Amino acid sequence: xxxxxxxxxxxxxxxxxxxxxxxxxxxxxxxxxxxxxxxxxxxxxxxxxxxxxxxxxxxxxxxxxxxxxxxxxxxxxxxxxxxxxxxxxxxxxxxxxxxxxxxxxxxxxxxxxxxxxxxxxxxxxxxxxxxxxxxxxxxxxxxxxxxxxxxxxxxxxxxxxxxxxxxxxxxxxxxxxxxxxxxxxxxxxxxxxxxxxxxxxxxxxxxxxxxxxxxxxxxxxxxxxxxxxxxxxxxxxxxxxxxxxxxxxxxxxxxxxxxxxxxxxxxxxxxxxxxxxxxxxxxxxxxxxxxxxxxxxxxxxxxxxxxxxxxxxxxxxxx
Length: 319
Description:
Layout: E1 20-22, E2 36-44, E3 47-55, E4 65-71, H1 78-84, H2 87-94, E5 97-101, H3 116-120, H4 125-139, E6 142-152, H5 154-165, E7 171-175, E8 190-196, H6 228-238, E9 245-249, E10 252-258, E11 264-270, H7 285-291, H8 302-311
């Protein structure tokens, strides 16, 4: 697993972010989902897959509620993502549900060459997340116009894969990641992408990073994505956006384009930042040294930034 993509949120010290209820199967319903964190499982393709779902006390489940899917990076878990990135506190303020799925062996399969054991074993993680969202949407009052996906690193790769292959999501928030594999005819979707210009794992300028092994061995990692600016330009073309506007505030350069049907595409480039979730919890010193992790940038709060973008971009009647 050392060859897999690592991320700055991986932590050796694991603390529970709130009260939780463990349920051995997916039996979520409005009267059985307590406030706080619930730990659950669902059967997909003959495998038991785990996830955590957080319900703020401010969400009564009496009417349509937004849902955010947060995908951890390689070597991470749903529990680690919950404790590292601040989504529960953001959900408390914004009044939405957050689900934190677990990748098998701490990784996600995105292509046959990436990433790790799930790719080697041909795990269908797109099917897992699709089933998870449709199950929660059937059993809880999830607003279909306000279902969003976000992820970092390997989780960001899967987030892009999901919006390439499904139309479940109104918007995607991608952090320290890229697009790999075919994405020939995606549905239009709002996109916010946050990336450090000094990222050596998923280089801002594109191409293979320092964890790439060409997709070989027992833990294949082949990530040879386009330059971040080129990737965001592709989404502007998909969404038929107007010309982008560029602004710079301190270390953050924002490239923003408005698109038909209320969509938009934004790139936030963080000068000098590495492979990390800006504003996230720093790993403990031992973990950071052992895994050679980049410390989180303090130039912005990625979670608050992504939620502001999500909340402004529901799915519209135009598509």
